[in-house]
Amino acid sequence: MTNVVTGHFDSTASLHKQIESLCLVDGQMNNDRFLSLYAGAIAECILDYEDWKEGLDEAFNLSKPFEDALDANQWRDNGYGSHAFMIDKDTELGRSLVRPYLDDNAGTSYVMLRDLMSSLKFLMGEENDFWSCLYDMTALVLVCEQCVHTLCDQVIDICIGDEAWSLGDCVQALGGLSGQYYAQSLGNQELGCSKDAVINHGFDFMIHSIMSEAMRLGMPDHAGVYTMLPANDTKNHVPFRRSEAVDLIATPLFKIFKVYDSDLRSMMIAKATGRMMAVASAGDSADMDCCVVTPLALSSMQGTYNHCLRGAFHA
């Protein structure tokens, strides 16, 4: 994968070199990561379109209904493979890699997208499986961004505006709901002997998505990830009532975009949690300190995750 179009595609060639270096492991190309990184970069460019679905279909000369593009089974292998949080980590990295080449002018994004697609066509040819998978992954990034943005807006309008919740209440409710959905996704899978390892790593996957989103949007990073989390012998907070109220807002939104998979829903709600943390703690006149908002989110997520896992595996 070293023969990328160069010349006047200098930015594209530079980006490709970065992606390629991140995907090489002991001289072997990690094709799944290659796909995720490029999907993130392409999606970042398409987000400047007024109608991102139209931009997606135009860029790929392909169109799929959301339920086909967001079929999570295509990313899984033997029950537990590349799940949503791992995909999100790489697609967000792809988005961050392309941002230095973009600016506030939408035309720059259009040109970058054109050059990215041209160089990939030179690189990959007309391999249908590659383009179909890349379309699906890019669609996932775009749907995720739309869902997270809309969910946060609606939670602020309904829960804060109508129900007089605080920002802390919203953060707790979203964190708890993310943990609930992720526990549900694990309970639905045949994990076998890998169950304990998957459960132990699951919390860390959720933490990464939440904290990355919060800090990307301006939350100070001087608080440690595990700051003020409860000790193992402390009862975690399980905000079921508030999480259920947020779920009533989220479920119709997920149905609109055909997001039916619990793993995908958990990842999107985790990112919404991080975004709400940034709303609460970013800026010079923040409503909450990051040392307060971080344990609010993570302790409720951890408490609900552990509580629901006990129900999923011991029912």
Structure description:
The chain is mostly helical. It folds into two domains: 1-142, no CATH class; 165-315, no CATH class. 69% of the residues lie in helices and 1% in strands. The protein has twelve helices and two strands, in the order αββααααααααααα. The chain has a two-stranded antiparallel ribbon with strand order 1-2. A hairpin with a 2-residue loop joins β1 and β2. α7 packs across α11 (262-281). The longest helix is centred in the middle third of the chain and has 35 residues, at 128-162. The chain is globular, with a radius of gyration of 20 Å. The relative contact order is 0.14.
H and E order: HEEHHHHHHHHHHH
Largest sheet: 2 strands, antiparallel
Which strands sit side by side, in order, in the main sheet?
A: 1-2
Give the low-confidence spans.
1-8
> How many structural domains does the protein architecture include?
2
Please bin the fraction of helical residues: 55-70%
Class by alpha and beta content: mainly alpha
Which word captures the global form? globular
Q: How much of the residues is beta strand, in percent?
A: under 5%
